[in-house]
Design goal:
CATH class: Mainly Alpha
Family: Belongs to the globin family.
Distance between the termini: 35 Å
Protein name: GLOBIN domain-containing protein
Keywords: Heme, Iron, Metal-binding, Oxygen transport, Transport
Oligomer: single chain
Strand content: under 5%
Shape: globular
Number of strands: 0
Number of domains: 1
Largest sheet: none
GO molecular function: heme binding; oxygen binding; oxygen carrier activity
Radius of gyration: 17 Å
Pfam family, one: Globin
């Protein structure tokens, strides 16, 4: 989805620092692919549930191993919305009124929130499974 990729120009590494930014660029590309899948499946969002479940499993393991926190998704979502708004405001292709931008942002926020919530559900389930199997404590006490 080249149109969406142009919204995230901050993912392009400075000249000479390409190697240092490869992991971040890879994650940004994966996120764009997920947004694209969401847009392409707006009439059938259940079609992307396996992708989101897989991301939830991966982030659940990160929570367990390196301390990933579910509230990071809120920060991530707000940063994404901020960059989308900037892209709309600075668009040289289309001129957007502030009302149109606000309406578009509400739709983007709804899509991104739905994606993040589905991933968070899987994170909680994975975290519960890991901690219940270790009999440390109830997983719900952590959330």
């Amino acid at each position: 989805c080249p149109e969406a990729q142009r919204l995230f120009t901050f993912t392009i590494p400075p000249r000479g620092q390409e190697r240092q930014c490869n992991e971040f660029a890879f994650q940004a590309l994966r996120f764009i692919q997920i947004l694209e899948s969401g847009i392409n499946n707006l009439n059938n969002l259940k079609a992307i549930e396996p992708i989101l479940d897989n991301l939830g499993r991966r982030h659940g393991k990160l929570k367990s191993s390196v301390g990933f926190r579910p509230y990071y998704w809120t920060v991530f979502m707000e940063c994404t919305i901020h960059h989308l708004r900037l892209a709309f405001l600075n668009s040289k292709v289309d001129q957007w009124s502030h009302k149109d931008i606000d309406n578009a942002i509400m739709l983007w926020r709804h899509l991104i929130l739905g994606i993040c919530q589905r991933i968070k559900v899987k994170i909680v389930l994975i975290f519960c499974y890991i901690h219940e199997s270790k009999k440390k404590h109830s997983c719900f006490a952590v959330f």
